[in-house]
Amino acid sequence: MDRSSGVNDASEVKEKPMKFLIELDFGTTFSSVASTLVNAGEPQKESLFTEWGEGLSGDKVPRILRYENGDTISSCYWGFEAEKMSYPEEKIHECFKLGLCPEIEPSPALGSEKVPRNCSSDILGVKSAIDRLYSEWERSMCLENRLSLPAMWSYGARETTRECAVEPFPGDPSKKDELSTIAKPEGAELFALSNMLGIGFEAGDTFVICDASGGYL
After folding, report:
1. Mean pLDDT of all residues belonging to the chain
2. Which pick of 5, 110, 115, 203 has the fewest CB atoms within 10 Å?
3. Model confidence over 157-215: pLDDT tens digits?
4. Cα atoms in the 13 Å half-sphere on the side-chain side of 8
5. pLDDT tens digits, one per residue of 32-75
């Protein structure tokens, strides 16, 4: 038995940088962020981001934008903080899907006349939870960022969304163009299958996976 071969293989594994996949899902009513280690040699469980600011936690965060004085150029509050600070009859931006695919989503955000591209940039810019986590990983790990989008969106709408997301996402500035997108049904399929590895599959098995979200089914 050639023991030296095994030692070399182990050395190569140790030298391989750890890689995390971070996926961001902009839902109509809520958004969520999950991460997983993708090159650990065996399947890893996904971890949901739960810290969205001081004293604000949850598996998902409300899709709400609130601007001071009701305009769209002053200070912006997002998610739990916006929900907590808003009052009855106040004009806020909620229940919207970034507004970047007009052929599928012709109506604007509730209570909003804001340009869709600006709304998406605001939300994508408020990622303190991701930024804090990234600052702890950046020296020792490689990150891959991915956006999940509705399957029926056109290629143009997907690219527009990706372009809006590129600048605020963490990572090496020279690799911004590597931000990828994934259709929501495909993401749901990968998540479901990764949690079914222990039940045993056989040729011919059929599965029905339903992603019953707040805006699209």
Report:
1. 69
2. 203
3. 777 777 777 665 555 555 566 678 888 888 888 777 777 777 777 888 887 877 776 55
4. 4
5. 888 887 766 665 677 888 877 776 778 888 878 787 766 656 67
Report the number of distinct structural domains present in the chain.
1
What is the residue range of 157's domain?
3-60+116-194
Answer whether residue 15 shows pLDDT above 60: no
> Are 183 and 155 contacting, i.e. CB atoms less than 8 angstroms apart?
no
Is residue 31, in this structure, part of any structural domain at all?
yes
Report yes or no on 208 lying in a domain. Answer: no
CATH number at residue 29: 3.30.420
